[in-house]
Amino acid sequence: QQQVKQSPQSLIVQKGGISIINCAYENTAFDYFPWYQQFPGKGPALLIAIRPDVSEKKEGRFTISFNKSAKQFSLHIMDSQPGDSATYFCAARAGGGNKLTFGTGTQLKVEL
Amino acid sequence: DAGVTQSPTHLIKTRGQHVTLRCSPISGHKSVSWYQQVLGQGPQFIFQYYEKEERGRGNFPDRFSARQFPNYSSELNVNALLLGDSALYLCASSQWGGSGNTIYFGEGSWLTVV
Question: How far apart are CA B114 and CA A57, in angstroms?
Fold first, then answer.
């Protein structure tokens, strides 16, 4: 059972544009929602994370928007740069510890 | 400060063999978990350990086992390797407890089974 659905599967954005990736979840016990960036051949690197008591969190060019009632959250990358080209994963966790349920990933390409 | 370190970075094994992968968590982190990432997919949870005890197990066969040592490092063992076990194996570390607990991943161990 896939508990975190991610879209789109791939995304092409022009340099300077806004990249938007969406995720939806089913398990209402999830209480921590991180986003990871992964470059080819590398492990996932934490970008930004949010808890469900907050509707938005911004760190630099990265913003998470969270809609608890709709069970959806999204990542916005402002002023997208070619160096942002990577695969992005949303994830969710229920309770403490480090058991994460990941989305299927979005391959982002930022073109000049 | 050192992040999550994993070894080896790459290895090739033959079907039926056994493999051991190792992980050292971030200093001060007492929880370690293991994930399998098949090419083109998101990481899938295998095991979670805290204070040397297994605290969760994903939907993987008994050929997969793990343990955590007193210094909080961990190893993942896979027996009777199959071609389908070829993947990137990731270790993650964190503190334990609290909804804001941050989880960090290592660079992974690339396993190829031939």
Answer: 45
